[in-house]
Specification:
Helix content is 72%, strand content 0%. The protein is mainly alpha-helical and 115 residues long. It has two domains: 57 residues, no CATH class; 42 residues, no CATH class. The termini are far apart. Keywords: Membrane, Transmembrane, Transmembrane helix. This is HVA22-like protein.
């Protein structure tokens, strides 16, 4: 019991210098929070998008729902692509029509077959 008492009494001698080293950083904490919030919020830095893409997105399961105004073949095509691509394809199809999208697919297939 005597050894533990001595260690407990001398613990402040060990922890004290560590606390004194960290003490100057405490006033910087509000500025560090401000910089972190700016990195997350401002579009120049794109911090929130980085966090979402690198860490959060892999844990989110996206549904395979496609609107009912497409035929079965069109729904199969839309379900095979990612959610982001599906959103942009749906916007393009709504704006320009499905035949315009099929022309793009055919042109891409021709381009891919070129040696």
């Amino acid at each position: 019991m005597g050894v533990l008492t001595v260690i407990a009494k001398r613990l402040d001698a060990i922890i004290g210098p560590g606390v004194m080293l960290l003490y100057p950083l405490v006033p910087l904490w509000p500025y560090m929070k401000l910089v972190l919030c700016m990195w997350l919020v401002l579009p120049i830095f794109n911090g929130a998008a980085y966090i979402y893409e690198k860490h959060i997105r892999k844990y989110i399961k996206f549904g395979g729902f496609v609107g009912s105004n497409y035929s079965e073949d069109q729904k199969k095509i839309l379900q095979m692509i990612s959610l982001d691509a599906r959103k942009y394809v749906a916007e393009y199809v709504d704006k320009h029509g499905w035949p315009a999208f099929e022309r793009i697919i055919k042109a891409a297939e021709k381009e891919a077959k070129k040696p």
